[in-house]
What we know:
The chain is of the alpha/beta class and 274 residues long. Helices cover 43% and strands 17% of the residues. It is built from 9 helices and 7 strands; from the N terminus they run H-H-H-E-H-E-H-E-E-H-E-H-E-H-H-E. The chain has helices spanning 5-25, 30-35, 41-50, 68-77, 88-98, 132-142, 174-184, 202-219, 223-241; strands at 58-62, 80-85, 101-104, 119-123, 149-157, 186-193, 244-253. Strands 3-2-1-4-5-7-6 form a 7-stranded mixed sheet, sandwiched between helices. Helix 5 (88-98) links the parallel strand 2 (80-85) and strand 3 (101-104). Helix 1 packs parallel to helix 5 and helix 6 (132-142) packs across helix 7. The two termini are 16 Å apart.
Amino acid sequence: MTGPDAMVDEFDTVAGWTATAIAELGEDHAIAGACRGSGVPSALAWFVEQLGLRAGQTLLDVGAGVGGAAEFAARTREVDVVLMDPMFEACRAARRVFGRRAVVADGAVLPFADSTFDAVWALGVLCTVPDQPGLLRELRRVVATGTGRIGLLVFVATSDDVRGGPEGNDFPTERKLQRMLDDAGLRVDARTTLADLPGPPEAWREQVRRVEALVARDHGDDPRWQSARDQESAISGLIGDGGVVGVLLSLRLSGQEPRPGGDRRQVRVTSATT
């Protein structure tokens, strides 16, 4: 799930800066700050409920970033979370902030055994990867056969000609997304959109603002900060203009076998470290 330099600026460099800002502001800013505006409580609560997460279950967060979304699940349902991200600094930042297990890996080649996790989610990740079908097949492979659930937040293009998005992003249309889900052997259990859910409460917004303000104070003169801001502005603009829609999906495994693909290495989850 690597990409152009702008994606490294957005997802890797800023992740490390964010962890430092959270450390300065305090633990009460950790979840909101680590979500960095991409995860909101209503959406995370929707996934926790729809995936049926229960205490003691295992959840893999693919493309976890600094780990705010996974920590929300861990604290609300006492699930055992494992974080995975292709960016080294993001994994290191997640460990600094939350002390969770994290592994640097490509989403299309997950280093976990088949049927390892009770649930898996990938939130806002699909559009950033070059091998979208491969990612979906891997999510299916590592989730528990028969009982496993998968959560996806996908930014779906409302037409075949979406322009002006952030570098390194490819937004699937509804038709393409459904075809990929079918090919991966996944079926939709529940669906909603970000627009249908309440926005974050003011306290959450304020925590995000404070974290972002500290990052800007310390790194606003760094061109990588501006690059990351440009990426964030591009996706916000697309959402605001209706070019893409944030779609939340709760998925289960269908009887269809996924097409061959992926590296099925048998690596135990306990070996996952940055």
